[in-house]
Structures are given as structure tokens and as C-alpha cells.
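Example for tutorial group B:
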């Protein structure tokens, strides 16, 4: 009977420790994504002297805003370890006033979930589970667009 209980427990998903490790991996990956976006924003700002239009300025602002959003998400995942839903709700409160669209967050979150660097397979799987839980809760907590 004990062997059956152990088997059924394994099928329930990542353990609490795996989820905590997964959240840490995901958070670190989001920080790396934010760093890449911040570098892109800096590069775009450096080209402003070469361009006569506002496109580089707008793209630089968007990249910087997205980098900030990813840092907010990473911080909330670290503060709310083990509770991706609460992390998403806290993130939505901070991110809603920013000019960031949910699809942009989704793309960055997916990229971060695919890039954790670890030899801990359970934590990598848990990072994907945490990302999915976070995303579903963020969509639910995101304020509806005016007129929607």
C-alpha cells in the first residue's frame, strides 16, 4: 500500500521544494531577459543621433518598460515563493498602470520559462508549471480594458 501511495504522490506534480526551485530559476531567467531588454534599450537610445524619427525613442522606451515589468515579476516570484497566484496578483497591481500589453508579458514569460540554466530537471519542469500558473493568474487579475 505504501508503494502505491508513493506512486500516486509522484503523479501530482512538482513538490513544494521543486516549485520553490522552479520559481527561483524562472525569476533568474526573467532577470536575464530584463537585462537583455535593458541593453537593447540602451543600444536603441545610442542610435538616436543617427535617426531623424521617433521610432528608436519609442522602441527604447518600450524595451525599458518591458525590462522594468520583468524585474517586477521576478521580484514578486521571489517574494511570494510557492504562491505564483499571489505573485501574479501583486504583479498585476504594479504593472496595470504601465503601458505594457499582456501578449508582450506572455512572450517574455514563455521565453524565460524555456531558458532556466540548471541541471535539476525537476526544477526546470517546475519553472514551467510556475510560469503557467503565474500566467493564468495574471490574465485573471489583469484589469479589463476600457470598453471591453
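The residue assignment follows.
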Amino acid at each position: 500500500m505504501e508503494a502505491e501511495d508513493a506512486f500516486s504522490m509522484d503523479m501530482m506534480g512538482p513538490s513544494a521544494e521543486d516549485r520553490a526551485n522552479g520559481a527561483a530559476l524562472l525569476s533568474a531567467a526573467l532577470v536575464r531577459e530584463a537585462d537583455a531588454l535593458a541593453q537593447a534599450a540602451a543600444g536603441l537610445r545610442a542610435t538616436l543621433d543617427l535617426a531623424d524619427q521617433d521610432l528608436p525613442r519609442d522602441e527604447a522606451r518600450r524595451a525599458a518598460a518591458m525590462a522594468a515589468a520583468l524585474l517586477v515579476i521576478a521580484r514578486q516570484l521571489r517574494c511570494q515563493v510557492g504562491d505564483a497566484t499571489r505573485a501574479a496578483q501583486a504583479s498585476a497591481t504594479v504593472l496595470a498602470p504601465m503601458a505594457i500589453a499582456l501578449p508582450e508579458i506572455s512572450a517574455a514569460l514563455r521565453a524565460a520559462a524555456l531558458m532556466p540554466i540548471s541541471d535539476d530537471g525537476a526544477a526546470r519542469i517546475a519553472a514551467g508549471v510556475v510560469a503557467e500558473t503565474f500566467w493564468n493568474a495574471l490574465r485573471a487579475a489583469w484589469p479589463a480594458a476600457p470598453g471591453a
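The CA atoms of residues 85 and 134 lie 6 Å apart. Compare this with the pattern of hydrophobic and polar residues in the output above.
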